Amino acid sequence: MPGRARGDDQERILEEALARARDAPPGAVALFDLDSTLLDNRPRQARILREYGRAAGVAPLLAARPEHWQGWDLAVALRNAGLGPDEVARHLRPARRFWAERFFTSEHCREDVPVPGAPGYVQAMAGTGVRVVYLTGRPERMREGTLDVLRRHGFPLPDGERVLLLMKPDADQGDDDWKRSACACVEALGPVVVAFDNEPAHVNLFAEAWPGAACVHLDTDCSSRPIAVLARVPSVAGWLRVKAPVS
How far apart are CA 182 and CA 172, in angstroms? Predict the structure, then answer.
């Protein structure tokens, strides 16, 4: 079903992905992105804004909350946190530099929380017998913090065999290039039967690389690039309605 699914359609799409995994051959792979697919990084973003507020003496930012982030536009977050137009213009560039120095760190990513329902769904997917692969644009320097978040929130943990975490070896590499090159690494592990990502460009890449897989778009937040999800790729709002028994 093309386009964003709702209600029972969303549940059906996600349960069909589980069924696809149950019927998969030995060694099959279920692929999951992390940020805005399984994990909500807005608490991380809010912490960085609060820290910038303390460092720059901007009192309204001391109360920055996750819900102030709507997408990835820092100007919107500053405005939502209480800054006026002149203050947003004055602080946007230094706040962006401050953000860039902290967002891609293990220390700050420990603030991340699961997208509701995500741990149970991935556990159910792992329970079908497929190999779970987390494929993320996070650089290797974030591995320790990422593993801590996965552990604390009940996700299947990477063990080097049944569950793997693939991270960017070069922090300067673009996410598009990294995920394109990582497709070959994933294919070497086994046939991909399901794949989930919030970025239209990436879920489209997976759908084209693995036309036989059930590729699903998580319609949470994403970059502002004007890229449409392929018509044959369904979109779901999240994992909330999924009742996912482990088989």
Answer: 15
- Same domain membership, residue 119 and residue 88: no
Tell me which DSSP letter residue 35 carries.
Answer: B
User: What distance in Å separates the CA atoms of residue 150 and residue 113, rounded to the nearest whole number?
Assistant: 9
Q: What is the pLDDT of residues 6-54, one digit of tens each?
A: 556 889 999 999 999 999 999 999 999 999 999 999 999 999 999 999 9
Q: Which helix (H) or strand (E) holds 30?
A: strand 29-32
- The model carries a pTM of 0.92
Give the C-alpha separation, 221 to 243, whole Å: 23
Overall number of domains in the chain: 2
Q: Verify that 84 and 18 share a domain, yes or no.
A: no
Could you tell me the residue range of the domain that residue 170 belongs to? 3-41+112-236
Tokens of 177: 């290039």
